[in-house]
Amino acid sequence: FHVADVTLDRDSMEMVCHLARQQRGDVYVQAEQLDGEDIALDGLNALYRRVGLFRSRRVIAVFRQTEELPCFAAIIWRGPLGMNFSFLENRCDLLAVNEKSAREGLAAAWPTLCEFYDDFLPGFIPFVVAPEQARAILEIGAEEICQYTQSIWLRDGFPAWYSHVASQFPLWAPQFPERGPQRDGESSSVERERQQ
Question: Are 137 and 106 in contact (CB under 8 A)?
Fold first, then answer.
């Protein structure tokens, strides 16, 4: 297997979008903006940082040595813990061609996924997986916590809600200093101010 972070690779992201459309449908790809310009959510993260939070996304794809299309992909969402105790804002969406690919792809991607969740305080990775592949994930040691039904509205279907949420960010921004996850050797703007 070949495991790669394809977040910034447009050609590979097109292949991941193909897999996502097969597994979750076109509305999922549109709603998650997997076919957009800002896969890593840098723009959204800039808004979150204005209110003292952070948001990021990475996409890991697993390819069989003899195949061009990925057999498995993990979409890693990271953000603050928040009030949702199912930790969906820190979920890892798993997409796989079939059960075998789910099992083998997760095993191949596991070390990479662990790196992205090494600072996740609950100490586990909250996977979201289609029911058709759940058994394969459970067989290799995952634990089922609950089942969800995902419901998605696109912006064109609910413009008033999107406008309301967008209008709230400027109201919160002055109240919070910029901060987010720091890497070794980095300090937040609050820490830099204290040091000066």
Answer: yes
